[in-house]
Design goal:
This protein has 3 helices and 4 strands. It has one domain: 2-Layer Sandwich (GTP Cyclohydrolase I, domain 2). Strand 3 (about 95-100) and strand 4 form a beta hairpin. About 30% of the residues lie in helices and about 30% in strands. The mean pLDDT is about 90.
Length: about 120
């Protein structure tokens, strides 16, 4: 059985992230790409939002989560975000990429990508 996917690409959030003291005093932009495994058939059957993943709601939840749970490392944030989303929305599989634009001179972006759970 193939798994459907609901995605959010290029979500810009402002949050505190970073190891250095100056980073703890400012907000920086992170860009998130998120793919969530989900069976969309129940939602599609009768055109019901409450039977799918509401990407608008999830987008807000990600920014709120990042700002309520500041960390030093993108790795920590990615792991905690994935766990939060999977538990909160009962998502069986997730692929999460967090970009930190302009963090390294001469690089457009750096970041981490993780995949958690099982694709059906």
């Amino acid at each position: 059985m193939a798994m459907d996917k609901v995605f959010i690409n290029g979500l810009n959030i402002q949050t505190t992230i970073g190891f250095f003291e100056w980073e703890k005093e400012i907000k920086q932009t992170l860009v998130i790409d998120l793919i969530m495994g989900w069976d969309i058939r129940p939602a599609a059957l009768n055109d019901e939002l409450d039977k799918t993943l509401d990407y608008a709601q999830i987008s807000v939840a990600l920014e709120e989560f990042a700002n309520k749970n500041p960390v030093d490392l993108l790795e920590t944030l990615a792991q905690r975000m994935a766990s939060f989303l999977m538990a909160s929305y009962k998502i069986p599989w997730i692929k999460l990429t967090i970009h930190k634009p302009n963090a390294v001179h001469n690089a457009k972006s750096v970041g981490v990508e993780i995949e958690r759970g099982q694709q059906l």
